[in-house]
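lol so apparently i was supposed to do this last week
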Amino acid sequence: MSDLKVPVTVLGGGSFGTTLANLLAGNDVPTRLWLRDEEQAASMRAKGENARYLPGVRLDPRLVITSDAEVALKDAQLVFLAIPSGAFRSVLQQLAPLLSGKGLISTTKGIEQPGFLMMSQIVEQEVPGAPVAVLSGPNLAREMAAGALTATVIASDDPQLNARVQAVLGCPSLRVYASADRYGVELGGALKNVYAIISGMAAAMGVGENTRSMLITRALAEMTRFAVHMGANPMTFLGLAGVGDLIVTCTSSMSRNYQVGYALGQGHSLEESVARLGQVAEGVNTLRVLRQKSEEEGVYMPLVAGLHAIIFEQQPLQEVIGRLMSAEQKHDVEFSAFMPRRATDKEQQ
Ligand SMILES: NC(=O)C1=CN([C@@H]2O[C@H](COP(=O)(O)OP(=O)(O)OC[C@H]3O[C@@H](n4cnc5c(N)ncnc54)[C@H](O)[C@@H]3O)[C@@H](O)[C@H]2O)C=CC1
Ligand SMILES: O=C(CO)COP(=O)(O)O
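anyway here it is w/ 1,3-dihydroxyacetonephosphate bound
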């Protein structure tokens, strides 16, 4: 069987799962999309549209949409996981017997607490022995679904799995680059959501272009410092899953994290800002988790600390901005932050 014809399943019928499934079906890959809710699945089959999460996008008639997990996963060789991080483990636990032996690709950009676990690490725990990869990059679902020219990254320590994903997913509108830095790619996708909230907030305040550039650049420095400390490859942060995803999420009002930040900047409470969205904004939970981890690890993350102070410690916005702007003026590029930590350094701590 050619790699293009292997049966593929996408778990999760939100905006990203639907987009991926539609692209795969459009490549003539036998694709099934699994949703937990039969009413929603039936509506999508009847209308040929995901009216709740991706209105206006025609679904490929070859796409099979089902709420029956056994039907969805029978014979599948590759499974894309597009479930929000808060439900990720429980869905895997529920479906684990149907997933073993298949190539499992997480597309979820969140972190689980306790343990500071990436989604692919949860996959390893819940489906032991399965080949695991992550897909991440500047990938706003709505643009991809509309056929905008896009690039993404598939990351795994299994080059064959990377190649299979490139074969099924790549198409005239989507280039799929490969990486061996699964941890860095996955961490990049989760971290940038926090800075998208800050950028949205800044936009609502009407800041200028200098400010926007300062924010994105210092966000990149901060997230790279943290990720490299944690063992990621610094070069990953110069790629699509690092600076690439940071740029799109910090500049597009299509980003849900940016939208939450914008609503916060307009003076809405966190609860209101999240409720208005009606979709997942992973950055809110990632902020909590990251603040705690950066303190435990002693990594300097002033933007994360500042946003945490505003959202969770009720500190006045202007006070936090004043503190950030009057902090010690340091070097622009800290080369030490970009030096990969050797495994032995980690072991000695
Ligand atoms: N939407 C986007 O542009 C992109 C999203 N992602 C990531 O993909 C993940 C999923 O996001 P979206 O699809 O955008 O979210 P969404 O908010 O559009 O949809 C979430 C979907 O997950 C389903 N779901 C929630 N709990 C479930 C459970 N227990 N069992 C089964 N299904 C459940 C919901 O019913 C819904 O269909 C997130 O981690 C997000 O960061 C990654 C790249 C782009
Ligand atoms: O990850 C994304 C783009 O790459 C989507 O970002 P949001 O979850 O903020 O919409």
